[in-house]
Amino acid sequence: MTEPPQPPNQPPSPSGYGHLPGPPQQGYGYPPQGPNPYAQQPPTVPQPLAQQGGYGFPPPGPGTPPGGRGGRRKGAVVVAAAVAGVLVLGTGAWFAFLSDDDDPKKPAAQASAPADPKPAGSPSVDKGDGSGNGMGEQTDLNAGRKPGEDRALWLKTAKLLADGDTGIPAPAMWVVGDSVVKTVGKSVIAYAVTDGKEKWKVDFKTEICGWADQTTADGKTVLAVKDGEGSNATCNQMKLFDLKAGKEGWTKELAKENLFDGGGSVSMNLTGDVFVVNRMATATVHKLSTGDKLFSGNTPEGCQPSQYAAGNGKLLGIALCMDDDKTVEIQDADPVTGKKTWSYRLPKGFRVTSVLSVSPIVLDISNRSLDNADDNKRAIISLTPDGKKRASMSAEGSFETNCNASGSDNIQGCGNSVVDGDTLYLRTAGSKGYDNEVVAFDLATGKAKWRQKAGDKRNWYPVKAANGQLIAYRAGALREPGEIVSMAAAGGQPKTLLRMPSGPSANIESSMVTFQVRAFEDGRYFTSTTRLNGNNAEERLLMVFGK
């Protein structure tokens, strides 16, 4: 086995790097890949943040009505046990995890954000009762419900005609207060969580081409739309958007900073009163309340951040160094000034595939050699808050991270991985396409804490993790209902929180397992598609389950 050189600030590690063949994939420091509109969407449940005042919204007038992403790469990772060396990957590529090189001290777990307020069930605009089966018929979704099973609350369908043959994107979903909000084409639509009735709809003149998965505590987020129609349109119109009221705030044009900033999509993330915008070769940070630019990754010399990640009040910069090896450096960044206080250099040739968590810091990295495809290696590593190596994750299995699987080339938001406190949760890729496992990793040691099998031709899909509990969706076998369960970070048997009903509901649920965005909030499970065919026929858009 071969072992890549260690970065300057990292001591030598024991052997354990695999010498494995695999196709090269792009990483940071290279232009992103093109769109994959059919990739599975990761969960985009709002992460409540500290309340911010102002936000630049104009005061509403009397009787004023509401104002009228390239693809992420789906990936599977092989985690090599320290004694096993290398293992086979299930998606045509081969990887090995970097071995750990030290036994760092475990830092304190990060506190979880407060939960959204409970839905109040406010009055809805009656535009359909959500009782259809998704195929243009009205049916009782709970007709086959068995004792002990919970209910399908409602199903929302859409009958739309796409302009072209690529369908209609519907990638984003937020659960905010008593509403679940979806992007569909050029529109943002809110439905009441209790009955699925439409509450408001805002139509933009051009395509939605960027959005933040996160929201503020009062339900605001940031979007981007194109400056026109056609293939030459640029994604450069940023908007503050109130997801509770269905109203726009400020609109600011995203200034072009180099020749590569004229793309058709951007990725956006927010924390506190700042949000980041990542483009093909430029990363900028802005003030959420005004939209004003605070700083960019363009520096006159040294290592220039080409991407920023945001979360838990912190920013991370992914910087490309101007040395002969084009080294990638991880940096902290002050959310207001961009000033760094520490940096961590990856081994030669390695790039950041995804940021699984900003605080604690968890990175998916790969060397993805363009010169030697037989020497590709991959790892998930954890860092300390001051940028020192903690551990490399190590366990047997083929693990799907589903990174960059929504509508934009976002370095955050891996749909099959979640992090809470000092635990990383990943799902394995079942050898038969089912019967997979969910595995909990200790970020301090890199070792697997426990594994839980789905069994019975079922599949696990992590949804979120908070307060020491993993919330996961366990999909049923074909045409069988699934369930929502919780599992403690310390281990133990899963606890069922919600059982979906049998009968016609299970048939629909089974058809909505892949290419979905999921959320579990206030005892309700939300699942929605990320793209419609747009063939002027009834299509299933959004389904909700509860007690």
TrEMBL record:
Domain of life: Bacteria
Keyword Ribosomal protein: no
Pfam families: PQQ_2 (PF13360)
Renumbered residue ranges of the record's region Disordered: 1-73, 103-147
Low complexity bias spans: 15-42, 107-119
Residues in Pyrrolo-quinoline quinone repeat domain copies: 176-294
Transmembrane segments: 76-97
Annotated InterPro entries: PQQ_rpt_dom (IPR002372), Quino_amine_DH_bsu (IPR011044), Quinoprotein_ADH-like_sf (IPR011047), WD40/YVTN_repeat-like_dom_sf (IPR015943)
Compositional bias ranges of the Pro residues kind: 1-14
Keywords, comma-separated and alphabetical: Membrane, Transmembrane, Transmembrane helix
Name of the featured protein: PQQ-binding-like beta-propeller repeat protein
Species this protein is from: Streptomyces katrae
